[in-house]
Amino acid sequence: MQLLIQQAKIVDPRSEHHNKTADLLIEDGIITTIGTNIEANNAQIITGHNLHVSTGWTDIFADYREPGYEHKETIATGLAAAAAGGYTDVLTVPNTYPVVSTKSIVQYLLQTAAGNAVNLHPCGSATQNAEGKTLAEMMDMRANGAIAFTDGWKPIQNAGLMQKALEYIKAFNGILLQMPVDDALAEGGLMHEGPVSTRLGMAGIPALAETLMVHRDIELLRYTGSRLHITGISVAESVEKIRAAKKEGLQVTCSITPYHLALTDDALITYKSVYKVSPPLRSEADRQALIEGLKDGTIDCITSHHRPQEWDAKTKEFEYAADGMNVQEMAFSIVYDAIGAQVPLHTIIQALSTTPRAIFGLPASGIAKGEKACLTLFSPNDTVTYTDDTVKSLSRNNPFIGKKMKGRVLGIINNDNFVSNI
Known about the structure:
The protein is of the alpha/beta class and 422 residues long. The chain has helices spanning 75-84, 103-113, 138-143, 159-169, 183-186, 195-200, 208-224, 236-248, 258-262, 284-295, 311-314, 331-339, 345-352, 354-359; strands at 2-11, 21-27, 30-35, 44-46, 52-55, 57-62, 87-92, 119-124, 148-150, 176-178, 191-192, 204-205, 228-231, 252-256, 301-302, 375-385, 404-414, 417-420. It folds into two domains: 2-52 and 369-420, Urease, subunit C, domain 1 (Roll), CATH 2.30.40; 57-359, Metal-dependent hydrolases (TIM Barrel, Alpha-Beta Barrel). Strand 7 (87-92), helix 2 (103-113) and strand 8 (119-124) form a beta-alpha-beta unit.
């Protein structure tokens, strides 16, 4: 296949073409020419208003629910949502049924996703069946394609087991993902503990439920000398603790979600369960701390925490409603609309593309002649409105459908495929 991208602004700090506007000729999945006024008679032309191109984006924490929960999302619909959202690579969490605790489930996921424009990278569970009791066969799963290890939505609560997991992955220079929630402190809570929860009369989840887990895991990381990625941080103190750990030289990285950058606990005034997520939406002061952490490099990645839920799981009393939002295909729009005026575009793109690829050992394909074309096309100044008819995900559990937002994904090029939103 031959593609010609015309007059695109290149966003890739590692490339000599960074911040330049150029044409890119792609032949059989390889960037063969970068220049101006390139002519290619047989090429499919890709052009657009305010067209930008970057290295393909990577989502490091998404839930496609298959096998076991296909009524919420399938691998096929999940990958379609990913492509629509500008992602060329997705790491999936292991909280399926059965749980991704064996090499056979890892192989099933890879085989089901084979041939897609989006690369699927399964994360294996760190503990058997993500039950937090005994370690899973991580070495075996790693040998069969698991890219990293996590218990996903069920963070490891036992400190001794967490220590063993961190020590175990050192044998193959692996990385452990942990969502920072202390279940004992968060138990019974429905939203962030603060003035809003008090006013609404809702049981709160204290910031301590997160910061205590962040502190514990950093201490265990220091003790073991291993590698840890903390995903979904949501409070200012977590940013400070991770910033200090990085200055110390510990191998810790972290990520935030689009909805924690865009929303606060004030949204819960509506009592709408669509805002029920884990970790919960926090205060405006916390949101600003996340933005500053992204700007100064303390926060490495933006990840969707894509968690589809069927209508019945969300449309019920707030207390009983399931957690999560399915925001993968609109992640860039949410982020850029919320913080594009505060954070440089290249910083946002780096947190979506090159940094997560480096952390998880994915090929560092850049925008240069001879490189594989693994690209995301987008327009930061165009607006977009997602509707029930246009959303690719099987579920609709998010508050951004119907909202006009700035920042539009135009398509992806990967595996010699062009998936267009134009």
